[in-house]
Design brief:
129 residues; two-stranded antiparallel sheet; single chain; GTP Cyclohydrolase I, domain 2; 38% strand; 2 helices
């Protein structure tokens, strides 16, 4: 059992590939480094995705997120990079990554990046009385 950071995102087969459903994941302990000062940046990541054939394995996701602790990156770049890596690993129908960064220099930053599989359309929302 690995307890070291890893850039490997493992997946497992979607148990219900014939249905659109959403997986919500909250990652409250994301850290990376400011590329200008080297100071730590802290964020909560929110991943929402509609799987197609594969789902991301949570321990692998934890180790992947951990691998950014010593990397310098701008908030916009790191959010898009993580989403790109997740899309490459899972090939989801839809994925949205929101990164809510804690204050840096008196400014909070929230970055949202999305991916839609070509041809996929979100199901119509159901409104109940």
């Amino acid at each position: 059992m690995s307890t070291k950071p890893s850039k490997t995102l493992e997946t497992f087969p979607n148990p219900n590939p014939d249905r659109d459903y959403t997986i919500h994941i909250r990652i409250p302990e994301f850290t990376c480094l400011c590329p200008k000062t080297g100071q730590p940046d802290f964020a909560t990541l929110y991943l929402d995705y509609v799987p197609d054939t594969d789902c991301v394995e949570l321990k692998a996701l934890k180790l992947y997120v951990w691998s950014f602790r010593e990397e310098g990156a701008f908030h916009e770049a790191i959010t898009n990079r993580i989403l790109d890596d997740l899309v490459e690993a899972m090939h989801p129908r839809f994925a949205r990554l929101r990164a809510d960064f804690n204050v840096r220099g008196g400014i909070y930053t929230n970055v949202v990046a999305e991916y839609r599989k070509p041809g996929w359309r979100a199901p119509e929302a159901v409104t109940l009385p």
